[in-house]
Amino acid sequence: MIHQIYSILTDHTTVDRTLAQLIKDGTLRKFYIGGTGSDEFAIMLTEDYIHQIDQAKEQYLKDHKEAQEKKASAISSTPSTGKRKLDSTAPTAAAHSNASASKKRRGTVGAVAGTRAGSALVSAALASSGSGSTDEAGEGEIFDRFKELVSGGHCMEISIQHSNIQDVIGATDQDITTLIRYSLLNRSLSVPANPHLINLEASASHHTNTAKASLNGSHSSGSHSSLNQLITATNQQHAKSIRADTPSSLPTSAAAGTLVPTSGSNSTTNSVGATTTITDATARRGRTSDDVAYRFAIRQGGLFVTHFLKGRLEILRTIKRQMFSDMLTSAITAKPLRGSFLPHEFHIHDLVGSGRVQSITTSSGQLLKLTQKGEASAKAG
Fold it and tell me: Which intervals carry biased composition (Basic and acidic residues) (predicted)?
């Protein structure tokens, strides 16, 4: 974690500058760690991340091979069942009469023919499955192209836009789905770049009373607050109009997709001089026009975050139980962690670097004292 380096090197500016240069050179890659409750980032050697891409490709080919084998075994079981049925009916036909003997011979020949046809069918199925495996192995090239994207210096950021990954490596939607499935990409859930583009699918009827109250008054809280209330109310009316498919009921400006205030103080009127535009097509889709972003992910990142948070919380609560909310590092490391497989030193650097504990050098060793941030984290956890 980047903040762990802050517990070793006190000059944070130098740390940030050096990390930025190493990331730019392609030596390191920076990753966003979600699920921790705050914006925290990790760094990894680029060569280690490329090794993870190779592991993901191997797992993909292994899964595909197993799927093809199951498909081939399911096809091959069908002719063998037919053979048993023909063989069991042939002796029964021979027991009736001499006339049925010819039927028996024909049935036997039919059984043999059916068996040969079945074996031919199995061979064809196996051949087709083999060719399909080759094709899928070719489709596995998305991992090689993704490796080129990571190591070629095309994108050194923590995320990449949907259009960019299509343009740079020619990835299709199916390719992106494969990368997400094998934990190399994550869908970014960040706030849209334009906060005024509101999701019109959110239940407008639920906020009808709020919209009326916003339109009736309460402009005294400032021009910015009044502007937000006006934008929210107008978008809710727009959404309601779209659902009812009666755009004529809206004012001319709202039907055209432009938000213009109808009442309010002069400060509010001046604040909305630059109007916000929402196209009807975007409104009907119920989502913003911002391009979808994907974050570069670390394989088994969820397992890491689970143990990372459990170990952090366990040490914080241990320190909080002390009389003065402080504890020697030697006493902390002497007690094994129950919820994390990460070493004590890893968690101590995390707590010090994130500002949850204060490190104090004493004659007895390093003393960790809980800060207000640490107390809040221990209580929230």
Answer: 63-72
